[in-house]
Amino acid sequence: MNHQIDISKELERLISQRRVNDALDLIDNASATLGAVPELRSATSRLRESYELMTHYALQGMPDPARPELYAGIIADIRALADDLHRRSRLDDAPTLYFNTLRYQNMRPDISIATLLDEYRRVNRRLQMAMLTEDVEKAGREFSMRAEDLEKRIFNLIWITYPLTVDDAAAIGNLLSDISLAGHFKQLCVSALMLGQLEYPDEKRMRLLMDAYLSDNAEISVRALCSMLIIMSVRRNRPFSPALARRFDSLREDSRWSADVKMALLQFIRARDTERIGRKLTDEVIPEMMKLQPELEKLGRKPLDPESIEENPEWAELLDKSGISDKLKELQEIQEDGGDVMMVTFSKLKTFPFFNDISNWFLPFHTSHSSIAGSNDASVRMLADIMESAPMFCNSDKYSIILSLAQVPESQKQMMSSQLKAHSAQMAAMSFGDIDSSQKGRERLAGKYVQDIYRFFRLFRRKGEFNDPFATTLNLVTVPLLSDIFDDADTLLLVGEFYFKHKHFADAFDVFERLSDKVPPSAQLYQKMGYCMQMLGAIDTAVRYYEQSELLNAESLWTIKRLAICHRNSRNWEKAVEYYSRLAAANPDDANVALNLALCHLENGQTAEAMQLLYKVEFLQGESDRSSRPLVRCALLENNLDKARRYSDALLSRTPSASDYMHAGHIEILSGNLDNGVRLYAEAIAADNFDTGNFVRTFKSDMETYKAMSAIDSLTLGLILDEAIKRSSALGHKV
C-alpha cells in the first residue's frame, strides 16, 4: 500500500527561499518511497543539469537576459513534478471517484482521447445516416445512446488524464474547433478540462481553455472564461510558467476580456449568496407561509393558490401583517438581480440516477438527449422544447424537471407547460434585442453556467471528494494575474458596492481599501469601510474609520449613530453618552435615542440623568418593559424602594424575565421581606433554566452595584442564597 505523498508546503517553503537544490532533493527523497520511478529520476536529473549550468554562468558574471525566464521555467517544472509525485502516491488505493476512474482507465492503455474521439465521430456519422432508414426511431435511439456513452467516457478521460500529451491536446483542440460536432459535446469537454485542472494543474489544459475562450461560439467561450477564472482564483498563488504567461498576455489583448472578467466576478458573488437565499426561504418564508395557510384558506374557502394571493385584498393584508410580504418582495428583488432562488427547490431533485454520472452535471440541456427524445410521452417532449429556450433555469435544473415528469399527472404537466410558456415569453420580452454574442447574452450564459458548477460542488453525491471553489471567496480582485483589470477607481467602486450590497463585508472592505488609495478622502467611503469592520466585529477599527468620516462630514447623523453604537458595544460609556447626546439633540422626540442615552448614562454612573430620560421615554411611548427595567435599576441605586416596587410589580404582571425576578427579590430583601425575597430568587433561577452558577454570579455582582445590600450580614446572605437554590429545585420538580 502506498501512502499519500504531499510535499507541497515544504516545497513552497524551499522555493520561496530560492533553495532549488534542496527542493530537487526533496522530490528525489520522496519519490524513493514509491520505489524506482525512472520518469521522476530522469526529470529531476535534467532540471539539476539546467540549474547547475545556469548557476555556473551566473557566477562567472556572464550576462543572460533570458536567465529570469529560465529560472521561472525550472520552478514551474519542479512544482509539476511534485504534483506528479502526489498523484502517483495515491494511484493504487485512493478511494475517490477520480482515482477509481483512473484505475479503470489504466486497465485499457490502448484507449486514448484521440481514439475515443474517432469512434465518437463514426457513431455520429452513423446516427445521421440512421435518420434515413425505415425505422428511424429505433436506429436513432440506438446510436444516440452509444454517442451519449462515448461523451461520458471522453469527459472522464479528459478529466483524469495527467499530464495531457501533445497528441491529447491536439485531439481536444481539434474537437473544440470541429464544426461538425454538437455544441453541447464541446461545452461538456470544456467543463472536463476545468475539473481536471482543479485536480492537478497542467499547462496544456490552460492553453486549451484559453483557446476555447477565443471561440466564436458564445457558449464555449463563456464556459472557458468561467472555468479559467475559477482555476486562477483557486491557484492564485501558483504563477504561470513563462510560456503560459506569454499566452495569457496575448489573451488579455482580446477586446472582450476585461468586461468579461468583471461580468464573471459578479456571477461568482451572486453564487456565494445562494446559501443565504436558501436559508431565508427554508427558515423564514416557507415556515411562515405554512403557519398562515389555514387562515388564508379560511378566507378563500379553498386550497391556497400562491398565484392568486394578490387578487384577494384580505390575503394581502394578512401577509403584510405577518411580515411575509416584505420577505417575498426581497426574494423577488434578489431574483431580478440574478440571485439563485431555485437552488432550494431543485436540490431535492438531484437524486435521479442521471446525476450519478459526473458529466451530466455539466451537460448542456438539449432535446436530442435520450431522456427526452426517447420518451414516449409527447408532453415531456413538448415541455422540453419550451425549456430549451427558457432563460430562468440552469441546465442541471432543466434535466431535473424533465426527469421528475414521470411522477407528475397529465393535468399538472399541461399546467406546467402553460406557465413555462408565459414565463419564458415574459423573460424573452424583458431581454428583447439581446443576442448570444452580446455582453448581456454572455452574462446570462455565465450566470447559468456558474449555477451548474455551484450545484455540482454542493449537491453531487460524492461532493466531499472535490475541493469546492465556492468554499473560498472566489474574489478575483485579489488574483495577481487579474489585478490590472481591477485597478481603476470606477471598477473598484462597482465591485466594492456589489460586495457591500450582498453583505460580503470582508471582501467589500478589501476593495474599498484599495479604492481609498486611488480617490480623494470621502466621508461616504469611510462610512462603508467602518460599517464593514463593524459587521465583522472589529469595533475599534470601525470607530477609526467612522471618525475619519466624521472629520469630513461632522453633521452626518448616520455616522454619529454608528459611533454611538460602537462606543456602547465596546463599553466606552463616556463616548457613547457624547454621541447619543448629539443624536438626541437632533431628534428630541425619538424615544429609542432617548432610551439608549439613558442606558449609557446609567452604565456611566449618572443615575439622575438616566432617570429623567426614562421618564421622557415613558411620556413619548407609554410605560413598557424597555423603560420599566432600567427605572427599577435607577430606583434601587437611589434606594427608593417604593418607586422600584411600583415598576417591578408592573414587570412581574407582564412577562417577567430572570432579571425581573432577581430585582424584585432585591427589593423584598432590602424591605425586610426575606422569605418573599427568597421566593422571587427561586423564580429567577427557574426562569434562567435553573442555572444556579449564573444566579450566584449575578447576585454577587448586584451586591457591588446596589450598595444598600452590603448592610445585610454575610451569614444571612448565605442562608438566603442556599434556600433560594433549594426552592428552585422544587420548582424544577413541578415542571
UniProtKB/TrEMBL annotation:
Superkingdom in the source lineage: Bacteria
Family annotation (SMART domains): TPR
PROSITE patterns, alphabetized: TPR (PS50005)
InterPro entries with a match to the protein in the record: CellSynth/LPSAsmb/PSIAsmb, TPR-like_helical_dom_sf, TPR_rpt
Repeat (TPR) residue spans along the chain: 557-590
Keywords noted in UniProt: Repeat, TPR repeat
PANTHER family noted in UniProt: LIPOPOLYSACCHARIDE ASSEMBLY PROTEIN B, TPR REPEAT-CONTAINING PROTEIN PA4667
Name assigned to this protein: Tetratricopeptide repeat protein
Lineage of origin: Bacteria, Pseudomonadati, Bacteroidota, Bacteroidia, Bacteroidales
